[in-house]
Write a structure and sequence with these properties.
Layout (H helix, E strand, L loop, with lengths): L1 H22 L4 H34 L2 H50 L2 H6 L2 H26 L2 H24 L3 H38 L1 H6 L3 H53 L5 H42 L18 E8 L8 E8 L4 E6 L5 H8 L7 E6 L2 E2 L5 H6 L1 E5 L9 H6 L7 H10 L3 H5 L18 H15 L3 E5 L7 H14 L4 E5 L11 E6 L2 E6 L1 H7 L2 H17 L1
Parallel strand pairs: 3-8, 3-9, 6-7, 7-8
Antiparallel strand pairs: 1-2, 1-4, 4-5, 9-10
């Protein structure tokens, strides 16, 4: 059972490392040069050690001319070795950076292509941990692989071992007694190290997730004094990371101790047995010097190779987290470009479930024509926001048919579809950048006059001009340096600049004060004059002039019509409307 487990672990390591190398195939030209430099540097290192021993024998013989000649050759080889090692180190840094850049680019492109469902099912902290700390660790592996596994170390080990056999094969075999034990023990340790490292990665992701929740919700944390509930979670995560790190430290110390013993044992044997061979004239003093110098480099290389193997096992565990991200389901990129200024939408018997077996929408049907202002209303959880997400193509596992301009949604290219849409929600989605750059996300090629006009239409121009840096004001993370109304008006200016034919409104004024709500509502009305407007309404008083109101109840369309018609029907809409009037009157009182 143990052998099968180890065999499975080896396959796991091989599979992950092979795939990781495939990700950076385009950067291997640098690695191939490193391999050549490493092989030459390794051979020169063995050659330099050989000449040192001969110099000692020549010095003992007292032949000065020969001594000078060997010293000159030794100096040239030493300089060449230093140069090759220098360029190898230089390229190692370049190779590490290139591989890290390639992986980051692929990971970031993946982030952009992931479906909305990925972010709903995976915490941001886990994703950020993979993008930052995991890739930082993976960078170091590529240098270890090329330098330690494929070039310098194996060259020193093989060339040195051959030279030791030539010098005195009996002494070489005698000194190798401890080496098989070294290989066996370090291999066992490496497998344990890989398993523990993988656990650390998982606990670190958990810690990053908790930390991101803590920082993102700091206002709630302070307001509700969440120390008693939250602090133990953070403490537990920190303790688990510390415990697993302590295990890794013990394993590495054990590995170091074993390698030290296996290193010094041949050292002692070499000098004792080598001294006997000198006495029996089977070896010269210089020959023993060469042997000990080269053989210890062989043992050192073997020791470093075992450490490098541990790094490879560790890397395989880290890479698994990267692959989880890279293997995540992406949004489709196929489809046709049907984008036009027209927009006619039809839902035909559409059902949808986030989780299998629990329908959020159940057989709903409705249509929206170009230029119509349509409101979708209903109690919380009735499926209003889900309809917006389906229109934007964020989910493709619905049942029924969604037609846009008479074309099935699954036939559309999603990028071209979203070009028609401008979502405006309570969560405005601003970035820690200048006001100008946040607005420019609506249309990057807009000129200064168009930007200013957009701010005027969004009723944002005056407050922007009152700021010390105007358009160049940096607004903080998520627009934290602005009020809620100011953030919403900046987002509206961005939407106005995009000038898409369809507005998807998820009641952007519901969380604002009366003054800010007035500005936003007026800007939306101005903007929607010549556009199709689909609004999720929480305050029903804001949609009494809508061309059509779709009433949802538990994912089912129960009523459709304008305000007056629905009030006369005295059904679900009337119930919602009257209930909200009571709430608004109580607020005014």
């Amino acid at each position: 059972m143990s052998k099968q487990k180890n065999k499975g672990q080896m396959k796991y390591v091989y599979r992950n490392i092979k795939r990781l190398l495939g990700l950076v195939r385009e950067d291997f030209s640098i690695g191939s040069i490193m391999i050549i430099l490493g092989i030459v540097a390794g051979l020169l290192g063995v050659g330099v050690s050989y000449l040192y021993g001969h110099l000692l024998d020549i010095a003992l013989e007292g032949v000065m001319d020969k001594l000078i000649q060997y010293a000159a050759v030794l100096m040239v080889l030493g300089v060449l070795q230093s140069l090759f090692e220098y360029f190898g180190i230089f390229l190692a840094g370049k190779y590490r950076i290139a591989c890290g850049k390639t992986i980051r680019n692929k990971a970031c492109r993946k982030i952009n292509n992931l479906s909305i469902s990925y972010y709903e099912n995976n915490h941001t902290g886990s994703t950020v941990s993979t993008l930052i700390s995991d890739i930082d660790k993976l960078e170091k592996f590529f240098v270890t692989l090329v330098d330690d596994i494929l070039s310098y170390l194996p060259t020193r080990l093989i060339a040195g071992f051959i030279l030791c056999l030539i010098l005195n094969y009996k002494l070489t075999l005698i000194c190798l007694v401890a080496t098989p034990l070294l290989g066996y023990l370090t291999g066992k340790i490496s497998l344990r190290l890989g398993k523990t490292t993988n656990t650390i990665q998982e606990e670190t992701e958990n810690y990053n997730t908790l930390l991101r929740d803590f920082i993102g919700g700091i206002h709630i944390y302070k307001a509700y004094k969440m120390e008693k509930s939250f602090d133990p979670k953070i403490l537990s995560a920190c303790n688990e990371i510390a415990n697993q790190s302590f295990i890794v430290s013990k394993v590495k110390n054990m590995d170091y101790s074993i390698r030290s013993i296996a290193y010094f044992l041949p050292n002692i044997i070499a000098y004792i047995v080598g001294g006997i061979f000198i006495f029996r004239e089977e070896l010269t003093v210089g020959g023993l010097f060469i042997f000990t110098n080269v053989f210890f480099r062989v043992i050192g290389s073997f020791s470093r190779l075992s450490t490098s193997w541990a790094t490879i096992v560790e890397t395989a565990g880290i890479a698994q987290h990267l692959f989880k991200l890279l293997d995540a389901h992406e949004e489709r990129v196929d489809g046709n470009d049907f984008a036009k200024s027209d927009f006619v939408l039809e839902f035909r018997n559409v059902s949808f479930a986030y989780n299998e077996g629990i329908d959020v929408l159940d057989g709903i049907s409705f249509s929206i024509n170009k230029g119509e202002k349509v409101a979708i209303v209903g109690a919380s959880g009735s499926g209003k926001t889900t309809i917006h997400k389906l229109i934007a193509g964020h989910y493709d596992h619905y049942r029924g048919a969604i037609l846009i301009n008479s074309k099935e949604l699954c036939d559309w290219n999603l990028g071209n579809l979203r070009y028609l849409l401008s979502p405006v929600t309570q969560e405005v989605g601003l970035f820690d950048d200048t006001i100008r750059n946040n607005i420019l996300h609506g249309r990057l090629d807009a000129d200064e006059e168009e930007i200013i006009e957009a701010t005027r239409k969004a009723y944002a121009y005056d407050f922007i001009q009152s700021m010390d840096y105007g358009m160049e004001t940096v607004i903080g993370e998520g627009g934290s340096k602005l009020s809620g109304g100011q953030r919403q008006r900046i987002a509206l200016a961005r939407t106005i600049l995009k000038d898409a034919p369809v507005l998807l409104l998820d009641e952007p004024t519901s969380a604002l004060d009366t003054k800010s709500e007035h500005y936003i509502q007026q800007a939306i009305e101005d903007m929607g004059e010549d556009k199709t407007v689909i609004i999720i309404a929480h305050r029903l008083s804001t949609i009494v002039n809508a061309d059509k109101i779709i009433v949802l109840d538990n994912g089912v369309v129960v009523e459709t019509g304008n305000h007056n018609a629905l009030i006369k029907r005295n059904g679900k809409y009337t119930e919602l409307y009257q209930r909200q009037l009571v709430v608004e009157m109580e607020e005014l009182a």
